[in-house]
Amino acid sequence: MAPPQFMMRRVEFIGRQWNLFDITTLIVVLLFHILSLPAPFYFNWGAFWLFVALYFLTGLGVTLGYHRSLAHRSFKLPRWLEYFFAYCGVLALQGNPIEWVSTHRYHHQFTDTKKDPHSPLMGFWFSHIGWVVNNSFRQPYYRFLHRTYLLHSVALGVLLYVTGGLPFLVWGMGVRTVVLYHVTFSVNSICHTWGSQVWDTGDLSRNNLLVALPTLGEGWHNNHHAFDYSARQGLEWWQVDITWYVITFLQVAGLATDVKTPTETQKKRKALHKQIIERNN
Q1: 2, part of any domain
Q2: What's the domain count of the chain?
Q3: Which residues cross the membrane (predicted)?
Q4: Would 148 be classed as within a structural domain?
Q5: Cα separation of 147 and 128, whole Å?
């Protein structure tokens, strides 16, 4: 289900085309940044641990639910568990499953070209957050969550306020959402700008440890672009990939099946040093 047609009419503003949906998204993002500003004045340990728990759950909603499960089908989950992680992704406020999966598949199809919805070729700032208010790629998927997307976060905000007042609201909604925004967006910007390339992917994707840690493993981005079907992105033992550890736990528990990872033969074909040697010869 696409946004109403009137929301897609574009106007020129500060050098680019905007529509009402873009502007609404921008306002929501700004409001959460404003909500997070008084965090030092509303700190208590209960609010802090709530922030940590919700950060982990909604972060997994994006990395495990939206990304590795729905966008790439790297493994299979029982329907109820797939829905649970997708719902956690909705509460991350980074788009509903329809928008997120569609945009991400488009990114892989046109990586680091002008058609890439969040390429650094359009500028570092655009790749980090500017693309969020450039709503051009959407397909029908998970219709209920698409229609009611914002209502779930509103309900969570009300619940947090009733339970713990302003400290819970500021830390559980404001700080948690803003921090998760920027660490997730760093995969699009930093991991296509700085880091190491191990695999011959033909694009700008990079592995970056400093991004991998807060994104629960998504910062091993060159690994991901080399083997986008893989449920595991930290391919070396020392590459911390918390999302992969959760998937492994679910696999041992019999809940995650058909878990895909690259074989040694597939790795050898993609090895960048091997391709360089072959080209030089």
Answers
A1: no
A2: 1
A3: 20-41, 47-68, 80-98, 118-137, 149-171
A4: yes
A5: 26
Question: 8 lies in a domain?
Answer: no
Is residue 194 a part of any domain in this protein? Answer: yes
User: Highest mean pLDDT range out of 131-135, 143-147, 254-258?
Assistant: 254-258
pLDDT-based confidence at residue 38 (cuts at 50, 70, 90): very high
Which tens digit of pLDDT belongs to each residue from 134-182?
443 353 546 788 889 999 999 999 999 999 999 999 999 999 999 999 9
pLDDT at position 128 is 41
Which residues form the domain of 188? Answer: 13-280
Query: Is residue 192 within 8 Å of 120, Cβ to Cβ?
Result: yes
